[in-house]
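Continuing the batch. This is chain 6 of the set; chains 1 through 5 are on the previous pages. Same settings as before, nothing changed between runs. Recording input and output for traceability.
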Amino acid sequence: MSKKLLVPKLCGSSSHEFALYPDENHNGIVITEVEHLELHDIYLKIYPVIIKKIVKRYEKSLKCDLFIAEAIVANAVPSLLKVFFDISFRIKKAADSQNGNLSIAKIDITSELPADLDIGGIIQKIRTDFVLNTELIYLIGEIFDFTKVDVCLDCKNPPTHQNSFVNHNSRLYKRSILNGLFERAKKMFFTIRNSFFTAKIGILNESYMTSPMVKKGLYGRYFEKIGLDIDIDNSNYSNNVVLRGEIFKTEDFDNSEINFLLNKMSLNTKERVLFKSKLVKYLRKFYPIDSLEMLHDYITALDKKFDDIKVDNVLSGSGSDAKSIFFLSLARKRKIKIFRSQHGGYYGYYKTRYYYENYKWINEYSSCDYYLTWGWNESIQHNLFNTKCLPFMSPWLSERKNFWSKNLRITSKKYSFDVIIAPTRLSPFSSIAHINSVDEIALRSDDLVSIVQELTRVDLNVLYKSPSLLSNDGYQVSINKMKKIGKNKFYFMDRIDKGITLELLEQAPIILWDTLGTGFLECIACGIPTVVYIHSYLSFTEQMKVILRKLESVGIVHTNEKSLACEILLYKNNMGKWFLDKKRKEYIEEFADLFCNTSEDWSDKLIAKISLLGSHDERKYGVRAPW
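Output for chain 6:
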């Protein structure tokens, strides 16, 4: 039997290649939902053990403070480990499926990653870059003694840059030139007015909180923006081979926790030895420079920031870069209380969004004293950090709700389309989350085609809103199928922007999602008619499953295409009655209270919460990390 060349994705129709990652045509190796959950439980046991060992080396080799070392190592290590573990597991499944008859392309793996790539940038590159994934296949493929061949893989990455891309989630006004000018004038007014105040709360990485803060006039009077611009030339840094050899060692992985994973993969003795050596080689190469070689320069530069910062508390939004982690660690050492506000959806109701699932979750959840959720509380979040979680509300959703209540009118007018389909974006390669991962692409593609078939069968007109250029590339065959099936009842939007707009909802009265993400939460919180199609309840918490079944009973959640089409048709013929159904209203409110809670006076409650918990009493660091 001739050996097929193991590649990240099929670039053509060659019968001599074997795709590692799945595509919409059912090529490649799928890590099933059950396997992801089983692996997740194994990974949770590994991360704290490895973090603890590396932190000790930071203390010894770098003379780094324990508190800072814990934060910065936990920022990068779990993400890198998960990528390596997942790719290794996937390659082992590929080897088993082909009885080991695979070859790998020889590739130079000595080149360094750019020094300006933080952990987020590195993971993003792994998610999307064909050449980098070919390199990882070569590195990990050596574990399984695949034949090495000299071959040139000519496969370009699909386009991802969109010059016209607009993030509409940040806008809280009706789109027009006049409104835009008014908003700029308002910002200028607040800037001038607030210069007369001394803020007591710093705000970092505010992201979606910016517009709500401006609208409420909170900057200056209560909040001061913290900028982390520091003058460090990345070009002066490169991988320190000796230092990386001191920090990452093979013996760190001689433990029972790693053995659980190796047993799961059914590796033999030789493969186990190679697995550990390749893992260490991988960490030495991919660990971000800003978290190691640049560590002391970052600490020194950011420490000076506190000469000008007079705040007692800091509120942080999104942000997983090393600068933010360093700054927050230094702030906590000064006993400045750190509050984090939940950034988006998915948290609180997915099993793998408890802790350590990805670097964002680690940073948001462990680099703070209090984590302000969108409603869910510690009774839902069974983990070692639950005392930090405080049920709160979303400032962004609160203001979006206010915007929609003033501008959106649910009427029975004639729309151009009957429903908007808004699928989520999927990564083409390995990601740090199993939710919305490449493993779902074939399933999601088939579902979308079936949904369009059912919708157009009952004479419904469909508007398809693509989430990204990458998604267009990944769903190319399915999009063509949908166009062919839907004919003149299926329209594909050419423009790709993020978020829901008034202009979009003026074209169709209801939105269909294929995941329970931020977009769905916005619709539920803001009274926008919506439905969601989900294939399985497996990855949700038990409490979430109960709520989902309630929403399914009132036609919001669907697990089959026929019921979905019937519900949208029913809505089309009875738009005014959608929110009048008592059970539907009750279940929507129950869901919103837990996962997308809002309040008109969120700003007063936020200031009161920070004033209460961030008082000048003796501050506590809270629960220590489990390593």
